[in-house]
Amino acid sequence: VGPTCRGSGVNQDQRKLGYAVYNDLDFEPITESEGDSYARCMVRIREVSLSFELIRQAVNKIPDGPVDIKVKGFPEGEFFSRLEQPRGEVVYYVKGNGTKFLSRFRIRTPTFANIPALVHMLAGCELADVPVIVLSIDPCISCAER
């Protein structure tokens, strides 16, 4: 997911789903087609410039008035969301039961989704290339702990 996929030419970015203000921002996901560590690194580098441009656009769309909203009560129901983080897609699932305690809360982090791709990336590679390949997916080790 995220830069790991986009470094292989996959034009997928959860921000293009139009959540929050992203529907009103003009951008195209950054992709590279080579599918190697260098391509994944270049996607991340080019996304820094894209991030600055998105910030410029978003600042101009901030409405006037108060920005804080008070949450009242303890809602019941379920919520599922897919969002783009720097490492890729994160998935949140929340289930409220009307009390101050949630009955279910799950997160699937981008690192957890990207680690299975390492099996294919590392197949047949030189031992000296392993650190570069692993670091090219920008793993968050604590995010992958289950």
Largest β-sheet summary: 3 strands, antiparallel
Regions with pLDDT < 50 over 5+ consecutive residues?
Answer: none
Estimate what percentage of residues fall within beta strands: 15-25%
Globular, elongated, flat, extended or rod-shaped: what is the shape?
A: flat
Layout of helices and strands:
Blueprint: H1 3-6, H2 37-59, E1 76-85, E2 88-97, E3 102-108, H3 110-122, H4 130-135, H5 141-144
Describe the structure in your own words.
34% of the residues lie in helices and 18% in strands. It is built from five helices and three strands, in the order H-H-E-E-E-H-H-H. It has one domain (3-63, 71-141). The longest helix is centred in the first third of the chain and has 23 residues, at 37-59. The chain has a three-stranded antiparallel beta sheet. A hairpin with a 4-residue loop joins strand 2 and strand 3. By secondary structure, the protein is α+β, with helices and mostly antiparallel strands. Keywords: Oxidoreductase. Pfam families: Complex1_49kDa. GO terms for molecular function: NAD binding; oxidoreductase activity, acting on NAD(P)H; quinone binding. Residues 1-70, 74-146 form the NADH-quinone oxidoreductase subunit D domain.
